[in-house]
Amino acid sequence: MGQIKFYALGGMGDNGKNLYVLEINNKIIILDAGLQHPSGDLLGVDAIVPDITYLLSRKEDIVGIFLSHAHDKHIGALPMLLSHIKTKVYGTAFTIEVARDFLADNKMNHYDYEFEVVKYNSIMKFDDFAVEFFPTTHSVPLSAGIVIYTEDGAIVYVTDFTFDQNVTTYFKTDFKKLAKISDYGVLALLCESSGATNTGHSNTNMNLKKIIRNTITEAEGRIIVGLYSTELSNIQLIIDESLAAGKKISIIGRKAQRMVNIGERMGYIQIPQERLVNLRYVDGENKNEFDDVVFLVTGERHEPFFMLQRMAKKFDRLIHLIESDTVIFMCPPLIGTEKIAAKTFDALSKANVHMIKVDKQLLSKFHASSEDIKLMYSIINPKYIIPVSGEYRNQLAQYEIALEYGYTDNEIFLLDNGEVISFTKGKKDTAHDMVDNGSIMIDGTYETDINDEVIKERELLSQDGFLMIIANINAKTKEMLNKPEIVSRGFMYMKDNEEMIKEIEIIYQLESKKQFSKQNIDWKEYRDNIRYQIQRYLYNKSKRKPICIPVIIDTSIENTCEII
């Protein structure tokens, strides 16, 4: 066997954006292709995906993309990847179906791309290695770990897993397969770190079922449950307890409806069709006030909170909350959603509904805690540990877990995105390398990305607003035809700032006279000087930096020309 290389283009120190690469004798395997949801300070950004510039330079060496499970953080960058790289995509049946749906949602025809549904324990053979999927436990069905067999040992990739056994068949870990992988000999374990700061094991809390059952049984009015659409196991729990209590089900939320529809169609989610209720829009005659229906309000990140706010304020098209309603929160705020969650709780309090916030400790954890990670170590006995999938503090927590377990500092590798480590004949090489890496911010579609300069301008707009200076000149006679019209949005109230407006007019006149004194007007210099002098004046006067936009219209041209 030659050399084995490993590096990440995303997922190291990230909350999402998982994309890991293995090179075996110069052939490339891509493990997952995920996105990262933006924080509130990335104004207008819909998603963040890995920069794949390096992979584009190695297109011919890529043998496939192998997907672990059907969450955006692991499949969300697939449309972008497949737009540039034609290769086969491998995954379990549910994962592939959701991936195809994700492409359709991004206006891509999935029939134009090659997908292969992988069955557990079936081995895919390539020239110098083989790949196998094995069952793991997560919040979506048919989640998988991925093992790559090489002559120098196996590379095992396990992300977003637990060892919880209080789950149905489609969510259950295969311990026998893990033991067989161990018998082969594991060179390196690429183990998730997202839950590494949690102590103990990540298990189902049986008290949660009791709380849900009692609440559904005892509630006198409507029951509305806030959930994350990615947590299908929790959605199934609510469905089961609602049906057991004789209730019907209504699912609100486009993303969840699609995920649930796929799961139901494939037999992984069980909902009797006769117990599903499709709602009509609220109007003068229809209020959708059904006491025998449990309403599941679902979405990603901020979406359940946003929809519940609309319901509380009676802006929603399907549900207007009333005092007899009970709202159950099974969606604890995530990082970056704390503010909208607080506003939602406030709006529901004003609506005077009965709120039940399920304690985060009662909800199932879907990421390996410290003892789960140690159990994985003990079962497969890897030679080297590489913490993946998590922010740096999570990776560091796994590093410390591995040290506590008995690994030495030379057997655990904390990596950054782009950092390459290599193995030759089963041993770690001393030299490290780097490949190009970074992030691409998506605004709207995967065909449109924005750079840091645009984000900075959006931040300025959100904080200090903008000022537009519109003026007419005659470039031939070099005359100012009128006072400039000044338009402000989000910066100042015009009537209260007459002195500031007069000073802006003077700056415009002075800069215009400077240009008119030249033989030819330098339009770029004209515009830039006006912007610079006005911005400097405004900052000295107000300590704020609005975006200044000079609009100079030359009326001497037959077809009026606008210079911005």
Describe the structure.
The chain has 564 residues and is α/β, with parallel strands linked by helices. The protein has three domains: 3-200 and 365-450, Metallo-beta-lactamase, Chain A, CATH 3.60.15.10; 206-357, Metallo-hydrolase/oxidoreductase (Rossmann fold, 3-Layer(aba) Sandwich), CATH 3.40.50; 453-563, Ubiquitin-like (UB roll) (Roll), CATH 3.10.20.580. Helix content is 31%, strand content 24%. The chain has 15 helices and 28 strands. The strands form five sheets. Strands 1, 2, 3, 5, 6, 7, 19, 20 and 21 form a nine-stranded mixed β-sheet that branches. The radius of gyration is 29 Å and the shape is globular. The N and C termini lie far apart (62 Å). Residues 559-564 have low confidence and may be disordered.
How many structurally independent domains? 3
Main β-sheet description:
9 strands, mixed
Radius of gyration: 29 Å
Helical content band: 25-40%
What structural category characterises the helix and strand content? alpha/beta
- What is the overall shape? globular
The name of the CATH architecture of the largest domain is 4-Layer Sandwich
Number of helices: 15
CATH superfamily of the largest domain: Ribonuclease Z/Hydroxyacylglutathione hydrolase-like
Kindly state the number of beta strands. Answer: 28
Q: Please write the CATH class name of the largest domain.
A: Alpha Beta
* Terminal-residue CA separation: 62 Å
Unreliable spans: 559-564
